[in-house]
Fold this protein.
Amino acid sequence: MTTPASVSTSREPAKIAGMFDGIARRYDTLNHVLSGGLDLVWRRRAIRALALAPGARLLDMCTGTGDLALAAVGGAVPGVDVVGVDFSGEMLRHGLVKVRAAGLGGRIRLVRGDATRVPLPDGSVDAAAVAFGIRNVVDRDRACREFCRVLKPGGRLAVLEFGNPTLPGWKQLYGWYSRVVLPKVGAMISGDSVAYSYLPASISQFPEPDQFAEDLRRSGFSTVEWKAMTFGTVYLHIATK
Ligand SMILES: C[S@@+](CC[C@H](N)C(=O)[O-])C[C@H]1O[C@@H](n2cnc3c(N)ncnc32)[C@H](O)[C@@H]1O
């Protein structure tokens, strides 16, 4: 996938946070519409791969409006508690409304913070997840070291991120969809013409799955596995501390 010349892929933290503040109100609707509801399936698969034990404490980094946190607490494993961290105040505000509406304020705590300085002590969570957030983090290696630091020994990290499909036919279709349809529909529904052009541009700059697996190992994880979902549209990395 090529980066359209006019699209800024600046990953300056304040700009990224501002961009998510701007689209927070329409974020969930757009996620579900643009992925055809698959985003819910991808998050559920990431949660299953974490193999949470009853009563586990989960960090949902880049939690946004809290969909992964809500799915984890509402899943099959009883007693899961989540700390959701994000640097966009507006995304968190919309997340808080959903958490309260679900009556889960006692189980999901939403905290403002940066992925490169996770506001949690060493070895304090059983598992961690980042859904569609790591691509936006400027100092990705530092963030991965932070995820490793806050995990207990043996704890798992699940990272969901978009990929660049290579399957003939799907590659062309997805390329057209993400370069043409997605920015147009995104701009129409969110009213922000930049944010949904930034999405395909930033995806094209994210490392290939083998390379990202290597980055995770270098950050301190002992084993890393990955699998492609929906023909390589999304990759799930599972790393164990
Ligand atoms: C595409 S959204 C994903 C939200 C959510 N995880 C989901 O699955 O829908 C990316 C989120 O990452 C957050 N984010 C990006 N970089 C961050 C950073 N360095 N620290 C904290 N949050 C960050 C953004 O504010 C945004 O809410």
Q: What stands out?
A: Residues 1-9 have pLDDT under 50 and may be disordered. The first strand starts at residue 57 and ends at 61. Residues 46 and 158 are 6 Å apart (CA to CA). The two ends are 33 Å apart (CA to CA).
